[in-house]
Design goal:
The protein contains five helices and no strands. The chain is an all-alpha fold and about 110 residues long. Helix 3 packs antiparallel against helix 4. The chain is flat, with a radius of gyration of 16 Å.
């Protein structure tokens, strides 16, 4: 807002329709699995030093990353997405988002 990058309405919209909306349906580990643990790992590698004293990527995330378990896209992450579980988890996520959207905005 101060540098003119976003309006006050934009800030509120980001939380209502982005993070807040997402976390009303999914927990942070599910969001990580859908977004890709490889992506979250790389973000954590530079962001954690600003968020906690150790500055390290969380050990459990590192274990999954090192094992090539990147979430939905690889069939495993914090949760198991083998077989048709990825398709089912995506369908359930989308249904939750739609129900929440309809409840809030219609």
């Amino acid at each position: 807002m101060q540098s003119g990058v976003i309006s006050k309405e934009g800030i509120d919209d980001v939380m209502k329709y982005g993070l807040g909306f997402r976390y009303a349906c999914l927990g942070p580990l599910e969001v990580s699995d859908f977004g890709g643990l490889d992506t979250f790992y790389h973000i954590s590698s530079y962001l954690m030093k600003n968020l906690c004293n150790s500055g390290d990527v969380p050990e459990l995330m590192k274990q999954h990353y090192d094992a090539g378990e990147y979430g939905v896209k690889s069939g495993a992450g914090f949760y198991d997405y083998s077989g048709d579980k990825a398709q089912q988890a995506t369908k359930e996520r989308d249904e939750k988002f739609l129900k929440l959207y309809h409840a809030l905005y219609e």
